[in-house]
Amino acid sequence: MSILIAEHQHALYRDLLAAAAPDLVLRSSADPEELARLAGDCPIWLGCPDLLVPLLRQGLKPAWLQSTWAGITPMLASELPRDYRLSRAVGIFGQVMAEYVLTYILAHERQLLARLASQVERRWDNRLPHSLAGRRVLIVGSGDIGQSVARFLQPFGVELHGIAREPRPLEPFREVAGLPELAGQAAQADYLINLLPDTPATRDLYDAALFAQLKPSALFINAGRGVAVVDADLVAALEEGRLAGAVIDVCREEPLPAEHPFWNAPRLLLTGHSSAPTLPGPMAELFLDNLQRYRRDEPLRGQVDFQRGY
């Protein structure tokens, strides 16, 4: 059984898979023309959507496609086929996303950027910081990644609340409310963290009405999808002092155009879609686990429901 590896780091993936499973027949490239030549003889594809979507557009199709991205929105375009098995990357982003979120929560609580500005201005800044203990953190998107972030934050004594599609008890959250309760929950949050995927139900959630509910001291972190935020409304909220700051990892258009207002918005930090990179080692392990499941005709980890969109 031949496997197509369509990745920018395809040689590394090939080496990892060959070492773990020498019996696999591996074909790999990052060149679109070479991938098109190889794809027809490979029933299983492993790789990133930006290299695989063009193959689907050409009429090529696998029996199973394992995406190396958590987000598979490009695969869901209406003109693309849906009569194959698709799985997204799951279970490998929790720690790196938690490290990202913790970095910027601590930076905000300890006023890191303000102190750097004070140093540049040669101004002694002896304001005393607060502790994270007792801070209310609302994680919007309480799936695998959201739970990992919550577990990392738990030892700091924060009060953990979550938002999911439907309310349910879920460790380590004190409470997980349904998406319709977002505004009320956000109004009480010191830290509002968006980790939602891109679905029709999650677009334009963070608008002027939502930002109007926030505490002026709240920090908003978006590491989910850019389409969840109404950009102009976030900029206006920052300019009017309706929230303390925003850390934006994902945008509607990437790279962000030079004329976009995010570049000059007050107290907004851009992190260039760097929050949770795919690490080849864990990704290769996930693929091999799913390969065994595929051979046994079992449900795949991260198997996508095309109707639901994730």
From TrEMBL:
Alphabetical list of Pfam families matching this protein: 2-Hacid_dh_C
**Gene Ontology MF: a single term:** NAD binding
D-isomer specific 2-hydroxyacid dehydrogenase NAD-binding domain residues are 103-274
Q: Does the keyword NAD apply?
A: yes
Q: Sorted alphabetically, which keywords does the UniProt record give?
A: NAD, Oxidoreductase
Which InterPro entries does the UniProt entry name for this protein?
D-isomer_DH_NAD-bd, NAD(P)-bd_dom_sf
The answer, when asked if rRNA-binding is one of the entry's keywords, is no
The organism sits in which domain of life? Bacteria
Q: Which CDD domains match?
A: 2-Hacid_dh_1
Q: Which SUPFAM superfamilies match?
A: NAD(P)-binding Rossmann-fold domains (SSF51735)
This protein's name: Phosphoglycerate dehydrogenase
Q: What is the lineage of its organism?
A: Bacteria, Pseudomonadati, Pseudomonadota, Gammaproteobacteria, Pseudomonadales
